Every structure is written in C-alpha cells, then in structure tokens.
Amino acid sequence: MTAEALRALHVPGKPLVLPNAWDADTARLVEAAGFPVVATSSAAVAAALGRPDGEGASVAEMFGAAERIVQAVSVPVTVDAESGYGLPPAEVATRLLALGVAGCNFEDTDHGKGGRRPLDEQAERIAELRRAAGDALVINARVDVFLGAEDEKAVLAEAVDRGRAYLAAGADCVYPILVRSPEILAEFVRTVGGPVNATPLPGGPGLAALAELGVARISLGTGLWRHLRGLLENVLGGIAEGTLPY
After folding, report:
1. CA 51, 52, 57, 61: dihedral to nearest 10 degrees?
2. Which of 19, 129, 130, 126 is nearest to 75 (CA)?
3. CATH 3.40.50.2300 fits 3-240, yes or no
4. Residue 82 carries which DSSP code?
5. Confidence of residue 2 (pLDDT cuts 50, 70, 90)
6. pLDDT tens readout for residues 13-27
7. Contacts of 21 (CB under 8 A, 6+ apart)
C-alpha cells in the first residue's frame, strides 16, 4: 500500500484504527490480526530500547527499530518520529522514505528546549517535511496543547489554530493528543477543517464513540503496551510467589 492508499483510509466517522507496535514481533501480530497498517509508539519503542520517552533514544536507535518493523511486515508502516530528533525536517523525510515508511507522526514539542514550538515555526517545519517528501509520506501533525492542560476549553482555540495551520502547511491529519473531554474533541473536529486523530483514554470515549465524534484515525498510542506490560507484571509477581501462569 502506498502513502496515497494510507491517506485514503483516514475517513471521518469511519476511522483507521491503529494498535501501536514497538518491535518486529508486535508489528507482525498487528498485521496478523488483519489491521491494514502498523503504527509505532515512540514511548514504547524507547522503553523496549531501555531509553526514556521524549527523544531519550538516539535517532539511530529509533530509526533502526523502525527499519526492523518495516522489514517484518507487508503492510504500510507509519512511524512516530517525535519531533525529529534534532534533524532538519527534510532529512527526517528523506531518512524515513529510505526505510520504506509510508507515514509519520510529527509533534510540536521541542524536546531540546522544553515546551511547544511557536505555531509559525512548527508550520514551517511541517511545510519543509512536506516539500521533501512530496506525496510519499502521510504526515500526522501532533498538537500538544492539551498535554497537562488543567482547563481544556481554555486551550481549545490555540489547538484549533495550530491544527488549521498544520493542515495548511501540508499535514494530512492533526492529532490533539490526550484531549479527554468528548465535547472539546467534538468541537476540535468540527472546527479544525481536516482529518483528526484521537486516542481512546481510560474513562473516555471508546472506539465506537470516537467514530461518532467524527475522528478519521484512532491511535492506541502507549495504551496497548501499558496494558500488556501490566499483565506481565502481574504474571511475574505470581511466578515470584511460586505460581506459573501455564
């Protein structure tokens, strides 16, 4: 599947569902379950490498993991490229395409300086990424204003402004990560003017409800990794007490 076909799977109300993988083995399981695309979770990939999230792993480590995932599956892969690991956006695009990647997440947090990049700066970075990739990369532009926000309504206007600017700069989809309120998410979807990615969160809308809100893409993010890690912790605790799970 090409980036064009991946782009076509972003349908508001009938979203592309992505259970994010973190290595070749989990990527194969996602494909075997029938999902048409494999997405990565940077936090889960970094944890598997023994590194912290937030670009704590090197670009060589993260892109090496991405390459192994691409080679392990026959479906397209969209990679969580965080904020680009300090590389110029054009180089991020070139390197991802060389790996055979069909899409990427690209966030507006500046991990080197802390905080979010100014809107205009991030829009230009997305435009540079688009110019270098042409149509060969599906760009999912992350909007980070809801991270740690005590009042989601208070930051909604900024989130919409960023989302619109990122779409105008060439993003295919925008991702207001960790927005929790269904009402705020619905307003974002209604006003941003393009495909929206959302994540199901504990106590929040599930897959069907997110589809009803009009999102075009659903990423589980770290959800699958955290769930399975919790199961493993419980199993290991049982083994430590002398009980085998099998």
Report:
1. 50
2. 19
3. no
4. T
5. confident
6. 999 999 999 999 999
7. 27, 29, 30, 38, 39, 40, 41, 44, 69
Mean pLDDT value of segment 74-84: 97
Predicted confidence (pLDDT) per residue in 128-165, tens digit: 999 999 999 999 999 999 999 999 999 999 999 999 99
Please give the order of strands across the beta sheet that includes 38-39.
38-39, 77-80, 103-107, 138-143, 173-176
84 Rama sector, left if φ>0, alpha if ψ -120 to 50, beta otherwise = left
User: What distance in Å separates the CA atoms of residue 32 and residue 196, rounded to the nearest whole number?
Assistant: 26
Rounded to whole angstroms, the Cα distance separating 39 from 103 reads: 9
d(CA 141, CA 165) in angstroms, rounded, equals: 10
What are the structure tokens assigned to 75, written together?
């479906």
Whose structure tokens read 């349908």? 11
Model pTM score: 0.96
Report the C-alpha gap between 203 and 17 in whole angstroms: 19
Tell me the residue length of the chain.
Answer: 246
Ramachandran area for residue 58 (φ above 0: left; ψ -120 to 50: alpha; else beta)? beta
For residue 66, give Cα distances in angstroms to 7, 52, 81, 177, 188.
20, 17, 9, 22, 31
